[in-house]
Amino acid sequence: MTDAKRSKKLGHTLCILVFCLFSPFAATVAETKMVSSLCKISHPGDAGIEWECRRVRSGETIEGLFGERWKDVLRFNRVDRRHARPGVYLKVPKRLDDIRDFTPMPSYYEPSATDPKFILIDLSEQFLGAYEYGRLAFSSPIATGERGNETPNGEFRITAYDKGHRSSLYPIEKTSIPYPMNYGLRFHINKRGVSFWIHGRDLPGYPASHGCVGLYDEQMQKKYYGFPQTPTLEDARILFEWVISPLSDRGFNLMQEGPRVLITGRAPRTGSRPS
């Protein structure tokens, strides 16, 4: 092969590499391969609602797609705005009014009728309910323990709280920064001395934690990930302030006779987990 032919072949190879690395089309293909579908994840509360699977396309936003119902669509999918990005498939009800203020939690829970404050966590639904004398006061989608790090079932109690808690075991991905566990409410310490908390975190739409129970915390997401620009979903803070009254901004605190926490069900599985 002559030098001229070698040079021409090398030029073609470099062009192909540049296209694969920088072409928007190539990036879209790579992203699609990484992202699975939240439509594959089943919760008991989905059964009574007719829905269809819809892919979020490039340039689309949840707010733009669903208007005033965008929060309800996220709650129905147990996902946050950061993870409801282009390429993800969402369950979209055929009638958005069917999921107005969506919650699969019972409006009245008899076993908590004598409790001033009671927390019910349904792993099957990936939802949490806060009850006052048996009546639902507040509910939130959650992300619980992934396979191999399951959130334990059973009856527990809030025994400590820490508004600015940080993980001592896990960092934010691709950094050395301890993962923020803002608005932390400790409910269990296992035999190995590992603590389990309810706290703010990412909600990717599937069980993803190391055993803790995560709620929306968009302030944290904006600080560490730069999105969303206007934090709105603050369920972790709302629950924390509901449990801790009067509110304390101090660090770690033990709590005497905190609310009971009941964890039931089994977290859903998916053969191809969203990334």
Please characterize this protein's 3D structure.
The protein is globular. The N and C termini lie far apart (46 Å). A 5-stranded mixed sheet has the order 5-4-3-12-6. It is α+β, with helices and mostly antiparallel strands and 275 residues long. The chain has helices spanning 3-22, 24-34, 62-66, 70-77, 218-225, 235-243; strands at residues 51-55, 89-93, 118-122, 127-132, 135-141, 154-157, 160-171, 178-189, 195-200, 213-215, 253-254, 260-264.
What is this entry, summarized?
This protein is an alpha+beta fold and 275 residues long. The chain has helices spanning 3-22, 24-34, 62-66, 70-77, 218-225, 235-243, and strands at residues 51-55, 89-93, 118-122, 127-132, 135-141, 154-157, 160-171, 178-189, 195-200, 213-215, 253-254, 260-264. β8 and β9 (195-200) form a beta hairpin.
